[in-house]
Amino acid sequence: RRNGIIKKAREISILCEAQVSVVIFSSSGKMSEYCSPSTTLPKVLERYQQNSGTKLWDAKHESLNAEIDRIKKENDNMQIDLRHLKGEDLNSLYPKELIPIEEALQLGLTSVRDKQMEIWKTHKKNEKLLEEENKQLTYM
């Protein structure tokens, strides 16, 4: 039934050139949605709010929306930084911007080498302990 409703929403959107948005919550809490390609759910809700005079968004929702936008921008910046650390998209950077990236990579490389050395030392220590234990067992 849910798929049928979403299919009908698509058909109405195409046949009537209408902006359609459908949100369905099942009894288990699962959400399904459809929105016309020419619009977004927030735009449809804003248009509904203007035409009906019903206020859907209050100050709390606006602040949450602003927080979501801030987090999305922060995420985008982190994705760009990650690509730079992987050596991608470096052509757009100036030499001064490359210096902190190089320092971060060198610090990371040092940390990785330190961890490898720690693991290697632990492995050697365990190897010596096993050899000593083997000698004792052979002696017995």
Automatic annotation (TrEMBL):
It is found in: Nucleus. Residues 61-88 form a coiled coil. Keywords: Coiled coil, DNA-binding, Nucleus, Transcription, Transcription regulation. Residues 61-140 form the K-box domain. One of its GO terms (molecular function) is DNA-binding transcription factor activity. GO terms for cellular component: nucleus. The keyword Transcription regulation applies. InterPro entries: MADS-box/MEF2_TF, TF_Kbox, TF_MADSbox, TF_MADSbox_sf. Residues 1-38 form the MADS-box domain. SUPFAM superfamilies: SRF-like. PANTHER family: SERUM RESPONSE FACTOR HOMOLOG (PTHR48019). This is GLOBOSA-like MADS box transcription factor. It comes from Strelitzia reginae. The gene is GLO2.
